[in-house]
Amino acid sequence: MLLVLCVDLDDDIGRKTGVETPVTGLRSVRDAAVALAEADPEDSDVNVLFEGVHLARTIEDEPVALAAVAGDERDDVVANRAVGDEVEAVLDALDATERVRAVVVTDGAQDESVVPVIRSRVSVDGVRRVVVRQSQDLESMYYTIKQVLDDPETRGTVLVPLGILLLIYPLAVLASLFDAPGGVVLGTVSALLGLYVIARGIGAGRRAAELFERAQQGLYAGRVTLVAYVVALVLFAVGAASGVESLSVARADADSPLDVLQVIAALLYGSVRWFAAAGLTTSVGQITDEYLAGGLEWRYLNAPFYVVAIAGVLHAVGGYFVGALSLQALAVALTGGTLLGFASTLAFAVADSRFGDDPPAAADGDPEEASA
């Protein structure tokens, strides 16, 4: 059986005529079309209903059923759900002994957005768009522009570069007032477009929004890690400056230009202590937050010791290559860092096995239920 399905997404039929949908049967749909034409002759859904009547009359090689369904004017999601429910009601009312297929009749691109909802209920053989010929392209263009403006992702992708390009002329006028060359304007616009494309490519906007949201939540929740990260950022900056200063001293003391390995060693020797302090700050902050949240585990306490061990090894390696430490001191630092890492791991593993919390089923409730 072929079902000719007329779709009125914004429920003009119900709002303007009072006719309840779904409307089934050729005579009922034709009466609804006449009622809508009398209420609003300019409504394009009138054409949809009459087209449905026309299709139902012209198809003679198989059984045909005709129905009109409507959505809701308030929201697209609500409208799609209403159309889906009415399609199910129409299918339940059909007394079909064979598989039902549908031809959807709409008045433009907006109503066709509900086709996937209909297709999830019944097989769709085709979509028939019926609009006034003079307004077909205009309606499709209007709906496309409306969809672009309503979609935040598309809006940012299309409108932002367009806005940057439209700034070329006002920037050129502004540059002429300050006697700046035109290349400055083109370079500025090119730089803005390049930064925007790179940011969109790596998802910088989404990541920045997530980072801001996490920072805001941490601020409201009083998380220690927020302060720890700020302090660590400052320590990283100081460490970088200290590394550059250490490299300058090493170059001044050297009789010949430094090779790549010596440059890296000098940077490490001057900065690794500050980097270690930043690592200690963040790890202690995270441990504090886990403790306050009741989720602290013994293995979390390994982090500060690992930071100290790694920093000690890197500092000794850098000092050895810049000539500040002897080979014996390097050996002692490597051994000490290794032993510190092993000792902390073993100690907290033993502490976890002996003093860790019991499973909830064994700690609370009936012992027989826990053993079971």
Provide structural commentary:
By secondary structure, this protein is of the alpha/beta class. It has three domains: about 1-140, no CATH class; about 150-200, no CATH class; about 220-365, no CATH class. Helix content is about 70%, strand content about 10%. The chain is built from 17 helices and five strands. It has helices at about 10-15, 25-40, 45-60, 75-95, 110, 115-120, 135-150, 150-165, 170-175, 180-200, 205-220, 225-255, 260-295, 300-320, 325-355, 360-365, 365-370; strands spanning about 1-10, 25, 65-70, 100-105, 125-130. It has a five-stranded mixed beta sheet with strand order 2-3-1-4-5, with helices on both faces. Helix 8 (about 150-165) runs antiparallel to helix 10 and helix 13 (about 260-295) runs antiparallel to helix 14 (about 300-320). The longest helix is centred in the last third of the chain and has 34 residues, at about 260-295. The two termini are about 60 Å apart.
